[in-house]
Design goal:
Blueprint (H helix, E strand, L loop, with lengths): L2 H14 L8 E3 L9 E7 L5 E7 L4 H22 L14 H6 L10
Antiparallel strand pairs: 1-2, 2-3
Helix pairs in contact: 1-2
Length: 111
């Protein structure tokens, strides 16, 4: 697998391995013919697959963001086919006061 694609996938596959996620079967099956891209396929347990790709030579963070969007699309479909909740990545728990105020539980907290 192209080195840049593997590196961009690493943090995303790590997130998929957390509770609520779903693990793909990753296949090094390039499907894009453009030499400036790297591509592969993700397969779900039901056999369905989706191509993923990145543009080579871009900053790593740009590649991860582009790939995360594609993988999230795959994850939602894979979770749906398993009959599981499709809100991946799952949102953190909302406190009653946060809901009443219309904000997330970590809104306004310094990171």
């Amino acid at each position: 697998m192209e080195r840049e694609l593997a590196a961009a996938l690493e943090p995303i596959l790590s997130d998929l391995g957390k509770p609520g996620g779903v693990q793909p079967e990753l296949r090094d099956e390039p499907w894009r013919e453009d030499p400036q891209t790297a591509s592969a396929f993700l397969y779900a347990s039901d056999g369905s697959g989706q191509g993923i790709s990145i543009d080579l030579g871009l900053p790593a963070v740009t590649q991860v963001v582009a790939l995360a969007d594609q993988v999230q699309d795959w994850a939602v479909e894979a979770l749906w086919s398993l009959g599981r909740a499709t809100n991946w990545p799952p949102c953190g728990p909302m406190s009653e006061s946060s809901v009443e105020q219309g904000r997330s539980p970590d809104a306004g907290q310094a990171s």
